[in-house]
Amino acid sequence: MFKRTDFKGAWGLKGPVGALAVYACVLFPILHIMFPQAQRWAPYIYPAYFAMVVLLLVLTRHTTWRHLGFHIENWKQNLILGCLAGGLVIGVIPLLELFIGVSGMAQSELFSGADQRLTLEPEGDASFTAFILPTIFIVLAEQGFLTGYVLQALIRNSKPALAVYLGGLIYMLIHFDFQLGMFLLGLTASSFYLLTGSLVAPLVFQVACYSAGWLLAQHYPKVFTLLGFLF
Question: Residue 117 above 70 pLDDT?
Fold first, then answer.
């Protein structure tokens, strides 16, 4: 039985909806229509906006870090939950690689040329260090805003099960990524937040999922091809 920290935020839906509207109606069109050349910075600009909103809420005392879910209450339980779920996602990758080789699928036309992906010249630094440092910032900002702020308001103002599904949909729409993998990531992170009342498990799980995506792109081209419809 999981120990859950109660949600103590006092904000309603007006603030989260307004912040999402600014993102969808102002920031997103500016980057993708008015300044398309700036799209390469979009993965960092969007989290910076989320971080700015959360920081502004805390500085103006509309909420606290703890009320958003940034706390260490029951941290061992929540860390284990995030690590187990994230470890499962990462652990499946080499198992699928082994299955592709043992089953003979590697010889099929589907995987022809898959290994050439690793020989292509990468854009920028492809090291794990260069990947993980900005990823941690992105995940902190996204979880603080999307889960701690937006999802918590949905949980407190609607049925929790509905809020979790809406959390998955919002996560998919925010990233403008309509693949199943992004929806499942948001759905799982939302479920962990509802279950624990903490952002620890969602944070660890999302970092693990992004790390799995890096592994697929850098070291497992056949699995990347197999799971292309997800990622």
Answer: no
Q: Which residue has the tokens 């909420």?
A: 63
Q: Is 28 exposed, middle or buried (0-12, 13-18, 19+ CB in 10 A)?
A: middle
For 80, the 3-state DSSP assignment is helix
Task: Answer for the pair 46, 27: CB distance below 8 angstroms, yes or no.
Answer: yes
Give the number of other CB atoms < 10 A from CB of residue 101. Answer: 12
- Tell me the whole-structure pTM to 2 decimals: 0.91
d(CA 4, CA 77): 10
pLDDT tens sequence across 10-22: 999 999 999 999 9
Q: How far is CA 195 from CA 13, 49, 139, in A?
A: 21, 27, 19
- Cβ contact 203:140 at 8 Å: yes
Q: Is the pLDDT of residue 123 over 70?
A: no
